[in-house]
Amino acid sequence: MTAWSATAAPSCSAAGARIADAMYAPVVTRLITYDVKLDHRCRAYCDTVMAMPEMIDWCEAARREPLEIDELEAEF
Question: What would be an example GO MF term here (predicted)?
Fold first, then answer.
């Protein structure tokens, strides 16, 4: 994180959302889900990404998704 943070904006909201933020959004959810211990800057970045309207919408849609999808259930 040191090399990246030296050139990165303090948060994605400071410079607007970036492509990298969208690519790292799934990683952020895993870091939170697995309760990975993060330093202050990394935790702030994760919090900022999770507060993005698109992330809020994505997480809400995932919560509404059924646990089983009949079309994907196949017998072998």
Answer: transferase activity
Compute CA distances 30 → 1, 7, 26, 46, 55, whole Å: 17, 24, 6, 10, 13
pLDDT tens digits for range 15-31: 566 788 889 999 999 99
Q: How far apart are CA 52 and CA 25, in angstroms?
A: 10
CB 9 within 8 A of CB 15: yes
Give helix 19-33 / helix 53-64 axis angle, nearest 10°: 50
The contacts of residue 15 (CB under 8 Å, 6+ apart) are 9
